[in-house]
Amino acid sequence: MKILAASIPEYFPTIILYLKMILSDVFVLADNLQYSKHSLVNRTKINTAEGKQWLTVPVLSSKKGIRKINEVSILPESNWKRKHELALKTYYKFSPFFEHYMHRYESIFNSTWSSLLNLDIAVIEMIKKQLKINKKLFSISKLSIQNTGTKRIIELAKTFNCSKYLIFDSEVSFVNQKSLENAGIELVIKKLNIKEYRQQFKPFTSDLSIIDLLFNIGNESLEYLLTCSE
User: Fold this and answer.
1) Model pLDDT for residues 170-198, shown as the tens digit of each residue
2) Could you please report the per-residue DSSP string of 146-192?
3) Is residue 143 assigned to a domain?
4) Which of 115, 120, 164 has the alpha carbon at shortest distance from 13?
5) Rounded to whole angstroms, what are the CA distances from 123 to 3, 23, 99, 118?
6) Is residue 117 within 8 Å of 69, Cβ to Cβ?
7) Do 6 and 27 form a contact (C-beta atoms < 8 A)?
8) How many CA atoms does the CB half-sphere of 160 hold within 13 Å?
9) Domain that holds residue 132
10) Is residue 210 a part of any domain in this protein?
11) Could you give the 3-state DSSP secondary structure of residue 19?
12) What's the pTM value of the predicted model, to 2 decimals?
């Protein structure tokens, strides 16, 4: 009775991505979906004294228009890495676990990136290790998956021999539950319940990058995550 879950790749992801990872047996990155500049694929939110702030990785525009996430390139000769590193150091320097994690993130900012997907995967893997989540990541683009939409989910479930597919209640409209049931796959719907934790700035903000959680509560983060769904 294995559980499948999936998410688009995210830049310094939200709590939701790691919740799905924790609650599933098989976790897949949907890296060949259509890229949208309004998604979290190339941006994240942090907490500041002035409120939430976006950190965005600039990407090259595409002459052909529609492109997949794994086809997106980062804009060269941009100072986004310096800006993002400075923002973290400015707003989190007094966080309890700043020193413990910041030097690890500096390795991301000190590296050269051309592929947005490679950047996202490197960040996701790094934070996965920090949370001590021992789970392999799979990418749809590296699998022989031909279908789209709910048919894609069914094909993925069969590929990994999963009988359940996990989503959060905000995603219900994107899945055809009847089709899943007809294919013998149970839809597991979780409700997100992000509880307040200590942050540097008030009021409490729930939809931030998971690094806000790590900087503020450190090695308690995994235990906290386990309380965030019902």
Assistant:
1) 999 999 999 999 999 999 999 999 999 99
2) ---HHHHHHHHHHHTTEEEEEEEGGGGGGS-HHHHHHTT-EEEEE-B
3) yes
4) 120
5) 24, 20, 18, 9
6) yes
7) yes
8) 28
9) 2-225
10) yes
11) helix
12) 0.95
Number of folded domains in the chain? 1
Residue 230 lies in a domain: no
Amino acid at 176: N
User: Residues 31, 145: contact at Cβ < 8 Å?
Assistant: no
Three-state SS for 28?
Answer: strand
In the numeric block, the tokens 């950047």 are attached to: 119
Residue 59 placed within a domain = yes
| pLDDT, tens digit, 9 for 90 and up, residues 7-48 | 999 999 999 999 999 999 999 999 999 999 899 999 999 999
Which tokens is 114 given?
Answer: 């051309």
Kindly list the strands in the beta sheet with 162-168, ordered across the sheet, starting from the edge strand earlier in the chain.
137-139, 26-29, 2-7, 162-168, 186-190
